[in-house]
Amino acid sequence: CETCSKEEAKYRCPRCMKYSCSLLCVKKHKLALNCNGVRDKTAFVSINEFTDLNLLSDYRFLEDVGRTADAAARHCIVHSPATKRLLHCLRNKARGCNIELKTLPVGFTKRRENSTTFNSTENKFYWHLKLVFPHCHAEYTLKRVPDDKTLADILKPYIDPVESDPVVCQRLKIYTTSPESDVQILMKIENRNRNSVRYNKLDPSRSLLDNLKGKVIIEYPTLFVVLKTQKNDMVILGQDGSEPAENKGSESSSLSSMEEGEIRDSS
């Protein structure tokens, strides 16, 4: 027994492979190692150690995943009339603001994450928003961001050297130490070929709603915060010399190629 080192081992933990002699030692080892005793079905197995039992385990694991996904897709709340009316209302309100809002099928991560709502009393969107800082490999998710808030105010808690949280400030040090004029806010243009990815440059002094007008949004906006002085592969529309700055024709009715590929894979 690897816990008491006295008795002969009778049991082996499926999770951490520790040997135990009794229920008491099993409980002690779980407490000491913070082990739940459940076998990790996704643990790495080298090709030299891979057996028919591992293959069968993987097959059953994939079957379980398929059943879980199917059960989630059939959930009555997801397909309830109230949920469909809410999505229809959101799309209509967005269309009234000159925003083409698209929603993904049930089961997609962005569909589950999205917490965007529309307040009819205030006649205002409260957006689910994702901020990506590629130079620091950092992402932050914001909920209930009012559409009349400027992008500069949205970014203050992250890149302002005075108002930002100390932990966040340290992580995004390259941004907080750079001049404000060096910061650019970009948003990916949807419905383009994968080998022709382009970004729209947004105006920090304008509200979130004003910046989203005339754009195609899939579920919720994702903003990329980049620095002009840092090298990146993000091409801003109109700055590559091959297309005009305003190319709204590219923002048409279908989903982006990435989402289309995911839909084909899931079907």
TrEMBL record:
<comment type="subunit">
    <text>Interacts with FBL, SNU13, NOP58, NUFIP1, RUVBL1, RUVBL2 and TAF9. Interacts (via HIT-type zinc finger) with the RUVBL1/RUVBL2 complex in the presence of ADP.</text>
</comment>
<dbReference type="InterPro" id="IPR007529">
    <property type="entry name" value="Znf_HIT"/>
</dbReference>
<feature type="domain" description="HIT-type">
    <location>
        <begin position="1"/>
        <end position="35"/>
    </location>
</feature>
<dbReference type="InterPro" id="IPR057721">
    <property type="entry name" value="BCD1_alpha/beta"/>
</dbReference>
<comment type="similarity">
    <text>Belongs to the BCD1 family.</text>
</comment>
<dbReference type="InterPro" id="IPR051639">
    <property type="entry name" value="BCD1"/>
</dbReference>
<keyword id="KW-0863">Zinc-finger</keyword>
<dbReference type="GO" id="GO:0000463">
    <property type="term" value="P:maturation of LSU-rRNA from tricistronic rRNA transcript (SSU-rRNA, 5.8S rRNA, LSU-rRNA)"/>
</dbReference>
<keyword id="KW-0690">Ribosome biogenesis</keyword>
<dbReference type="GO" id="GO:0070761">
    <property type="term" value="C:pre-snoRNP complex"/>
</dbReference>
<protein>
    <recommendedName>
        <fullName>Box C/D snoRNA protein 1</fullName>
    </recommendedName>
</protein>
<keyword id="KW-0479">Metal-binding</keyword>
<dbReference type="GO" id="GO:0005634">
    <property type="term" value="C:nucleus"/>
</dbReference>
<feature type="region of interest" description="Disordered">
    <location>
        <begin position="238"/>
        <end position="267"/>
    </location>
</feature>
<keyword id="KW-1017">Isopeptide bond</keyword>
<keyword id="KW-0597">Phosphoprotein</keyword>
<dbReference type="GO" id="GO:0000492">
    <property type="term" value="P:box C/D snoRNP assembly"/>
</dbReference>
<dbReference type="Pfam" id="PF25790">
    <property type="entry name" value="BCD1"/>
</dbReference>
<dbReference type="GO" id="GO:0008270">
    <property type="term" value="F:zinc ion binding"/>
</dbReference>
<keyword id="KW-0862">Zinc</keyword>
<keyword id="KW-0832">Ubl conjugation</keyword>
<dbReference type="Pfam" id="PF04438">
    <property type="entry name" value="zf-HIT"/>
</dbReference>
<dbReference type="GO" id="GO:0048254">
    <property type="term" value="P:snoRNA localization"/>
</dbReference>
<comment type="function">
    <text>Required for box C/D snoRNAs accumulation involved in snoRNA processing, snoRNA transport to the nucleolus and ribosome biogenesis.</text>
</comment>
